[in-house]
Design brief:
Blueprint lengths: L1 H8 L3 H9 L3 H5 L8 H13 L3 E6 L7 H20 L6 E5 L12 H19 L3 E3 L7 H14 L4 E5 L5 H8 L5 E5 L14 H17 L3 E5 L3 H13 L8 E5 L4 H9 L4 E7 L4 H10 L1 H12 L2
Parallel strand pairs: 1-2, 1-8, 2-3, 3-4, 4-5, 5-6, 6-7, 7-8
The structure holds dihydroflavine-adenine dinucleotide.
Length: about 300
């Protein structure tokens, strides 16, 4: 109930103005978001990489209805990727991209505009020596995102995608994408979805995650186990052993600011662990989804207000 209220608020322009203009916001948000500039992102990446973790950098922003904004986001990614290459970080740092930040939501030609912008970003990533993973947004975008993935993989086969276990369709999508060279980041799903397309009960989302993980681990692709859930992390280890996968033939992923101790524990046990590092000024939607995922975060949020 609280979770769906927060997810509804995450799409409200009025709440966005209220929360982003509040003077205390920055201090609360910095648990999840590393800063506003590419320099902040690169500094955070350098520190994490120095401690034995890999990273994926996300320039925050989504649902743009402005063509020039979509172009500006493309250029921001290209600059970031050049910076990662210049600083010799690209082997351990890839980027995550929301297609709605590069034009997918534009009413005229959004799909094609997002494809072309993503193609430019993939070329910049290739030149830097790294890869791009396409984030997954609301269920209405899944067909377009997977079609763009398919196009991009013709020239950039290392391009990855996110699949959300909350959606009924995802087991079939996992089967389609469990092939050699295919990088799939499996998540539970962070958006408010109708029961016509997604499991309404969290327990069913968790069970679906386990089934999807089995499909990906049994397949020939590269599974990216993106979850903080101790049960899923344990299951991934069991399935990797059952399917003869060595560490490095799959990886664990977690969000910056969540279960940092567990990230380090897995890395010291010899596992590959990647931290999702968001940065940028447009943090509202991302931040609200993190609150919605865990009611305790709302307590943390209000305590920060009281002690400001
Ligand atoms: P679950 O929600 O069951 O949480 C398990 C435990 O993890 C909790 O008990 C708590 O300890 C901890 N935890 C989880 N969320 C927390 C939070 N916000 N704050 C503090 N502790 C928390 N979603 C999406 O729809 N599209 C996408 O592209 C992505 N991309 C993505 C990348 C990566 C690397 C990750 C890790 C996650 C995403 N997500 C996402 C988000 C994902 O869908 C999901 O909402 C969160 O990961 C929370 O689900 P868990 O699997 O962690 O389990």
């Amino acid at each position: 109930m609280l979770s769906s209220t927060l997810l509804t608020a995450s799409r409200s322009p009025r709440m966005r103005r209220l929360v982003t203009n509040a003077p205390w916001s920055r201090r609360v948000v910095e648990r999840f978001v590393v800063g506003e500039s590419s320099g902040d992102a690169v500094d955070a990446a350098r520190t994490l990489i120095g401690s034995g973790l890999a990273v994926t950098l996300d320039h925050l922003g989504e649902d743009t209805l402005d063509l020039s904004q979509a172009g500006a986001t493309r250029e921001t990614y290209a600059t970031l990727l050049r910076l990662l290459a210049d600083l010799d970080l690209a082997a351990q740092a890839e980027v995550s991209l929301k297609l709605s930040a590069v034009g997918q939501a534009l009413p005229r030609g959004g799909h094609d505009i997002a494809l072309e912008n993503a193609r430019t970003i993939c070329a910049a990533a290739q030149q830097a020596g790294t890869t791009v993973t396409l984030d997954m947004e609301q269920h209405t975008t899944v067909d377009s995102t997977l079609a763009i993935l398919h196009e991009l993989r013709v020239d950039f086969p290392g391009t990855g995608a996110v699949l959300q276990s909350c959606l009924y369709r995802t087991e079939a999508d996992c089967r389609d994408l469990a092939s050699a060279g295919s990088r799939v980041r499996l998540v539970k799903g962070a958006y408010l979805e109708p029961a016509s397309v997604a499991h309404p009960a969290k327990a069913d989302v968790d069970l679906a995650y386990a089934r999807c993980l089995e499909i990906l681990m049994a397949g020939d692709g590269y599974p990216m186990v993106a979850s903080h859930d101790p049960r899923m992390i344990e299951l991934a280890g069991v399935l990797a052993a059952r399917h003869g996968r060595a560490p490095g033939s799959y990886e664990y992923q977690m969000l910056h600011g969540i279960r940092a101790g567990e990230q380090r524990r897995l890395a010291s046990a010899g596992e590959r662990v990647r931290v999702y590092v968001p940065y940028g000024a447009d943090w509202y939607g991302y931040f609200m989804r993190r609150l919605a995922e865990r009611p305790a975060n709302v307590g943390f949020f209000f305590r920060s207000l009281l002690t400001r």
